[in-house]
């Protein structure tokens, strides 16, 4: 089976609605007409090549605890070091650089707001940089799926 074709079909079909069952990869493979090992090898290939950044659910954070968008204004020469420190926290589920005075942005999710405050305080102590804390006030639902064209 052509890996490129399988990858396109996999990403088109399962950007949303991954099976909730004891063997999701087997179910996905069955849906795509391949075996589970082919599907897993395709996922490993996508991961190694940088075409896939994560596989997993997206939770409604307000039902699972607390969440906030945060940013740091990091001197360019410290950006890699500070980004690695931020990424060490299991509460961080996105961490990315941007071209702006606040050049390191990340999302924190935790059990409650005081927990997030402790993480932000600890980061400030560790880095000497004051986080910009931007909690969500209004939710806007957008579909982040992208059709990859015809997938035979």
Automatic annotation (TrEMBL):
Signal peptide: none annotated. It is an enzyme of class 4 (lyase). Pfam families: AsnC_trans_reg2 (PF17805), NirdL-like_HTH (PF22451). Pathway: Porphyrin-containing compound metabolism. Its EC number is 4.1.1.111. It comes from the Bacteria. GO terms for molecular function: lyase activity. The keyword Lyase applies. Residues 8-50 form the Siroheme decarboxylase NirL-like HTH domain. InterPro entries: AsnC_trans_reg2 (IPR040523), HTH-Siroheme_Decarb (IPR050684), NirdL-like_HTH (IPR053953). It catalyses: siroheme + 2 H(+) = 12,18-didecarboxysiroheme + 2 CO2. Probably forms a complex composed of NirD, NirL, NirG and NirH. All proteins are required for the total conversion of siroheme to didecarboxysiroheme. Involved in heme d1 biosynthesis. Catalyzes the decarboxylation of siroheme into didecarboxysiroheme. Belongs to the Ahb/Nir family. This is siroheme decarboxylase.
């Amino acid at each position: 089976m052509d890996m490129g074709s399988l990858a396109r079909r996999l990403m088109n079909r399962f950007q949303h609605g991954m099976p909730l069952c004891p063997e999701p990869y087997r179910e996905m493979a069955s849906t795509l007409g391949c075996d589970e090992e082919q599907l897993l090898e395709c996922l490993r290939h996508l991961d190694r090549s940088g075409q896939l950044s994560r596989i997993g659910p997206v939770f409604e954070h307000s039902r699972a605890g607390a969440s906030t968008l945060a940013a740091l204004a990091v001197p360019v020469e410290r950006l890699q070091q500070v980004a690695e420190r931020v990424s060490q926290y299991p509460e961080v589920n996105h961490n990315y650089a941007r071209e702006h005075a606040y050049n390191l942005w990340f999302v924190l999710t935790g059990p409650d707001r005081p927990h997030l405050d402790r993480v932000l305080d600890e980061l400030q102590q560790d880095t000497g940089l004051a986080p910009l804390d931007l909690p969500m006030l209004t939710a806007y639902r957008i579909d982040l799926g992208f059709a990859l064209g015809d997938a035979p």
